[in-house]
Amino acid sequence: xxxxxxxxxxxxxxxxxxxxxxxxxxxxxxxxxxxxxxxxxxxxxxxxxxxxxxxxxxxxxxxxxxxxxxxxxxxxxxxxxxxxxxxxxxxxxxxxxxxxxxxxxxxxxxxxxxxxxxxxxxxxxxxxxxxxxxxxxxxxxxxxxxxxxxxxxxxxxxxxxxxxxxxxxxxxxxxxxxxxxxxxxxxxxxxxxxxxxxxxxxxxxxxxxxxxxxxxxxxxxxxxxxxxxxxxxxxxxxxxxxxxxxxxxxxxxx
Length: 254
Known about the structure:
Elements: H1 3-12, H2 16-32, H3 36-63, H4 84-91, H5 94-97, E1 101-106, H6 112-125, E2 130-134, H7 135-144, H8 147-158, E3 162-168, H9 176-192, E4 195-200, H10 207-211, H11 214-226, E5 228-233, H12 238-253
């Protein structure tokens, strides 16, 4: 086979990682007089890396994340009261393998969502199936859906290795349909030992008020907290800090 025929064969076999670097590897082998096995191994590595990259990007798109967040992006000195050690321990992702949960509560703007998104993105890089929910948006969509669509949505929220429920009770009270969905998510994932991360501005003592049902709140918290680490975020708001910095820049430029 000549190079064109080999290129076509790689396309037919859907070995695009090898096909894309074939000519480069061939020139490299000729220039350095590499043994065949070394050249072939390099081509195989090209294919593996391309497939890994494609799978990672596919997991990221499926996750629902809107950014590739990292713990390195947080200014830990600005907010020294954030439990840094606990955040990095979660970032090891051991809690996913253990089927454990994390509850991150605290004031708005203190980095809760950023940490949750960083955990989610790290999990996609490590090969886990992840779903990220902006709770108000997704629960509102659930409340308006028909019975079959609701069943499909619940299935999508229960099956991933890691589910992020971000900003729970942001609008305080949630609908009865959303409350039932939350109970179903927590209950089913608890039985299947699948990891759940919840962030909220609301203290757990008030969940019954926001759910409109103290018994339901107790049931949800009982399962959520059984295998769970709870992190409390206090102190200053990153969003207010960034807003102040933008205003300062605008003032300097005026």
